[in-house]
Amino acid sequence: MQKRLIALAILAASASVSSQADIVGATAGAYMWKQSWDGDVKAGSQSIDMNDDLGYDDETGKSFYVALEHPVPVLPNIRLQHTALDISETNTLNRSFTFDGKGYAATNTVDSTTDLTHTDGTFYYEILDNWVNLDVGLTVRMFDGEVRIKNQTTGDEGSIEIDAPLPMAYVNARFELPLTGLYASALGNVIAYGDNKVTDMTLALGYELGILGLELGYRNFDVQLEDDNEEANVTVDGYFLGVVIDI
Length: 247
Known about the structure:
Layout: H1 2-23, E1 25-43, E2 47-49, E3 58-69, E4 77-83, E5 86-92, E6 97-99, E7 102-104, E8 109-115, E9 118-129, E10 132-143, E11 145-151, E12 157-162, E13 165-177, E14 182-193, E15 196-209, E16 212-227, E17 230-246
Antiparallel strand pairs: 1-2, 1-3, 1-17, 3-4, 4-9, 5-8, 6-7, 8-11, 9-10, 10-13, 11-12, 13-14, 14-15, 15-16, 16-17
């Protein structure tokens, strides 16, 4: 009798662990992003075009994330993502302008860096969990960036800081194609207030085999920020290729 009770206890414990494994999950992913930069910045009365004035073109960046989902209904799930988003260029000016009180004349050579690198902390709830998976929540985006322009001719250097935390609405949807291993996903982080707006949208197609998945997607990151006489109107978009591990 005692041996039977022990056996039943072991079976019950095994079933409990198996059930928890079905409920508790972790996802991690990383991708290389081919970035195309466009837009303008201002620190004063004149706008500086990133392509025409600073010579920006394409850059390659990286992004990686990890998400943890748990069975506690009241507490939100957690997702962390870091995106490297910066570009540096040297260019000879074909016009004169001022930036952050510094003068830059035509034919001057300038070194510039625009850094919009950020880390997202997202707290979300899973609303649907079948062939359509839908998550909604709140992202707090921490920028650690700047726009910096240095005049090689005179040594003058102007800059604006982009380092404020930004709360954003978060939506993440995934659509499974049954019996194929294929899926489509769409993720968005958005906020708009006054003259400021940040929109970050990602679309992807993926193929999953076991716990490993491959994704091909497109990401569009649009920033419109204004603070007194400082402005940044920047769009970074392009295709990415990534890998996902879903446990």
